[in-house]
Structures are given as structure tokens and as C-alpha cells.
Task: inverse folding
């Protein structure tokens, strides 16, 4: 029986054998998820094992604070069970490896890291940035002093009263232009003659 005399051939053989296995394992996450204040959100995390398979032994989610500190949200270990941080206890859940946050608050914004440990493959991580948007803040300034506020497809406009001489009765008519329906409201003051 001949032995391999060239270390280069042996190294190539090892690379050809192991490289496909190492490339197939990863954690897939979205780079950014946006949610409105007060809503529920799911931060997806999916472990893609090697073709020969791997057993997930631990799933962990951390929030990275603005100071760079990792805050443990929860960890699930097949042997030790589930641990949930007290400040997230009634607000988070797990579905497969994905994190569900209920009633999102402004302080929930930031980068979240999903860490998955598997046997025999090792540990894998992915980070998602959660952006929290306030539903009641001004979205766009309009000409003059009005501000448009958007809440679930309904547009509200702040109106400033400009007094004028002739009072016009209120109108209940609705006007439609393209896909926008609006009503005109004319408010006037009646002046008594002395």
C-alpha cells in the first residue's frame, strides 16, 4: 500500500472533503426589521445545518445596548431549559429560533444577536437591527402650518382657524380625487350688528 508523500495533495484532499460541510452551516437573519411602536414583531433566525445534520443544543438572543453591552434576553438549552431576563419576561417568546417581542417599546430598538450552538458543528451568530417607529409623530410638513400624521393609512391634518367676515355653513360633502377621500370643513363666526 502506498502512502501519500506530498503534503500538498493531502491538504487538497482535506479541503475538498471539509469545505462543502463548513460552507453549508450558517444562521440566517434579516439585516434590519422595522416595527411600529406598540405592535408585535418577529425577528427571524434560522439555522441551516450541514447536509449530514446537526443537533441544536442552545438558542440565545441578546440585545446590544447603545453602550455596547450585551443584554441577555433569553437562552434555551436542551439540558437546562429556558431562562428569560426579568425585564422581558412577559413580552418575549420563541418560535423555532426566532424571537417574538410583544408590545414593542422605543427602548427595544437596536441590534439583536441570535446565537445558536449545535453539536457537532459549533456556534453560529447573526445580528438583526430593530428599528422602532412612532406612529403618532409628524411624518411630513405641509405648506403653511399643517402637519400630516399617519396612523394605519388614515391621514389627519392639524388646522389653524383663520377668522373671516362671511360665515359659511358646514358642509357634509365628501370629495374624492384619485384614491383620496376628503371633506371640507368651513368654520365661521357670526358677528352681531350693534
Result:
Amino acid at each position: 500500500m502506498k502512502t501519500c508523500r506530498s503534503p500538498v495533495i493531502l491538504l487538497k484532499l482535506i479541503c475538498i472533503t471539509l469545505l462543502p460541510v463548513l460552507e453549508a452551516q450558517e444562521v440566517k437573519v434579516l439585516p434590519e426589521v422595522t416595527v411600529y411602536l406598540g405592535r408585535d414583531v418577529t425577528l427571524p433566525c434560522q439555522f441551516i445545518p450541514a447536509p449530514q445534520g446537526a443537533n441544536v443544543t442552545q438558542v440565545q438572543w441578546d440585545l446590544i445596548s447603545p453602550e455596547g453591552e450585551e443584554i441577555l434576553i433569553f437562552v434555551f438549552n436542551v439540558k437546562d431549559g429556558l431562562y428569560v431576563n426579568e425585564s422581558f419576561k412577559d413580552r418575549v417568546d420563541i418560535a423555532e429560533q426566532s424571537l417574538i417581542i410583544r408590545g414593542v417599546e422605543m427602548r427595544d430598538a437596536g441590534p439583536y444577536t441570535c446565537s445558536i450552538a449545535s453539536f457537532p458543528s459549533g456556534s453560529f451568530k447573526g445580528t438583526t437591527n430593530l428599528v422602532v417607529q412612532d406612529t403618532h409623530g409628524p411624518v411630513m410638513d405641509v405648506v403653511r402650518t399643517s402637519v400630516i400624521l399617519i396612523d394605519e393609512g388614515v391621514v389627519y391634518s392639524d388646522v389653524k382657524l383663520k377668522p373671516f367676515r362671511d360665515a359659511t355653513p358646514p358642509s357634509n360633502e365628501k370629495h374624492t380625487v384619485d384614491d383620496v377621500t376628503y371633506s371640507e370643513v368651513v368654520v365661521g363666526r357670526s358677528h352681531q350688528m350693534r
